[in-house]
Amino acid sequence: MAALHRVAHRGYCAVAPENTLPALVAGVLAGATFIEFDVRTTADGVPVVIHDRTVDRTTGSCGKVWELTLDEIRELDAGSWFSPAYAGLRIPRLTEVLDVLRPHAVGGHGVELLLEIKPPATLEQVKNIIGQVADAGLLDRTVVQSFDPAVLRLVEQAAPELRRGLLRDGFDAEQVAVARELGVGYCNPSMAAVLAAPGTVAALAEAGVAVMPWTANDSAIWPALVDAGVAGIISDRTGELTGWATARGTA
Ligand code: G3P
Ligand code: CA
Description:
Layout: E1 5-8, H1 21-29, E2 34-41, E3 47-49, H2 56-59, H3 70-74, H4 94-105, E4 112-117, H5 123-135, E5 142-146, H6 149-158, E6 163-167, H7 175-182, E7 186-188, H8 191-196, H9 198-206, H10 222-227, E8 232-235, H11 238-247
Parallel strand pairs: 1-2, 1-8, 2-4, 4-5, 5-6, 6-7
Antiparallel strand pairs: 2-3
Helix pairs in contact: 1-4, 5-6
SN-glycerol-3-phosphate is lined by residues 9, 36, 38, 51, 116, 167, 188, 214-215, 234.
């Protein structure tokens, strides 16, 4: 059986606060083959790793990421909302994330990075993000994904050689044509989209486009996703996913 990618969603976010350094490292330790995380840019132009448009949910403070400076963001506590054990944890800069993941990603057999750029993002911001990945020597270990096709076109403009993935809530009616037009190697829809239209996974695979659905946390669903032909599963439950894949010989 083909190996199944195990994607740690926002790091291993079942055991540590999402998109923080402990969660990202926990994903590696739990056997992920891809570490997924979300990148936004601060008011003063620094890429940071956070999912939401605002800092409200994960810091107890308030404000839009792109209206806050790095200094303002670095004052926030991104751990207490999850557990007192993580009190004082910071929202990481992208450079910190790359530094932490790099030793686990180089060498050909290590983990890969699934870097999501959250819109809005300008060409300058996209170039800055990709430049930091390049400076870390991780361009060939990274797939950049986005829900926004415009962002993916900026990524292609900035680094045509970089692998890209299109995120979708559901499959488009002409999903293969959409993926071909964008030139992406990955198309990552919700798991509900895969379960509703497993034939689209096969059609994309025939076109050379891999599918890794999100966010599949119920292990009862994993066999159906594999039967549909997915290349990987994006999950909060990295450890359980690794154990399951190992037991069925697809790790
Ligand atoms: O990688 C897929 C997944 O991260 C997309 O959804 O909202 O968790 O970024 P979201
Ligand atoms: Ca994401």
